[in-house]
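Batch job 17 of 40 flagged for manual review because the log was empty.
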Amino acid sequence: MKKESKKPTFKLWEVIVISIISSLIMSLGTGYIAYRNINNGKQNTSNNKNLQEFVKSYNQILDNYYDNIDEAALVDAAIKGMLNYLGDPYTTYLNESSKSYLTSSLTGTYEGIGVLITKTENDEFEITTVYDDTPAKEAGIMPGDKIIKINDEATDGQTSSSLGALIKESKDSNVKITVKRGEEELTFNVTRKTLYNPAVSSKIIQQNEKNIGYIELTKFSDTAYEQFNKELQKLEASKIDSLIIDVRNNTGGYLNEATKIAELFIEKGKTIYSLENKTKTEVTKDETEEHRTYKVAILMNESSASASEVLASALKYSYNATLVGTKSYGKGKVQQTSNLSDGSMIKYTTARWLTPEGNCIDGIGLTPDIENSLPEATEENQVVEDTQLNAATQFLSN
């Protein structure tokens, strides 16, 4: 928060406290958060003795404490103290860096060329993945290419982050990429554009003369539904008989994205989830005409949390999907966020979410219908058989 040149009076900080409280209530959601406001009440500072005591104490400290005070830090400490008092692990204060990481991790698009770059042990920047339908793919860049120049600037001494910045922050949309492919040096002129931050991948598994669709969903970003629906349509165009949705290690994201994905399968009028706050319980039901009828299995593990569990429970109880793997994490609470004026953020719990059967899984998790644990690797770099995927495939192919 911006530091004032003069000590604030009582009335000034009444206004600031009102702003903080109002910001808490009117905040927009990010992360795994309800996409609508739940609590619309607000406190009137002039009639609230507790807030008056807070402001009085604040002014007393500013006026009488013997040493210099960082006013912004003092207010931050007060906010952290309020959040810590609640004793809720999902209610927390995020500094500007933590906030940036949270929001960027759930951003569904970015400006780039569509590659994944890894710095090797030899300090070379190797392209490990070239995504489909991207400028890099169209230009002819291939996995295994080593990037040696960006816009004629050598990559020596760069980090993966600074290299990505050179591509994303190029003065115009055209980026000159020079790579080493074997002993050959190649240069590509690639046009940067807005791309999906990959959250979904798909394939078809053939077993017992059945085409089983497979979609891996790694996060519920703000384009997760768009990406999922696109891959689902591709799979269905190939005449799949059933579908596996893999949310293993997916720790969550935006609730409305999970809701829209569930609506692709569930019949209109059936329950997706409920939200229970201090005053009421609101039921969210499918309001769309779209639905499917083929068999669905959902792969999950102990790191499947939050929006992953919402989707899994919705499809289990309102679509009769089969859960395969190990018990999920068990995050049954819903958060909202509020941006503060200094660039930081608070994230706080506003409700519990309930399965279509009315149960809260917080601290409990979802139990799989077909329990299967992955074998542990006994050697370094050993490739472990995906027994969970095999179990789901076997179930759907019978």
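Reviewer: the log was empty due to a logging misconfiguration, but the result itself is present. The CA atoms of residues 75 and 331 lie 30 Å apart. Unflagging and moving on to job 18.
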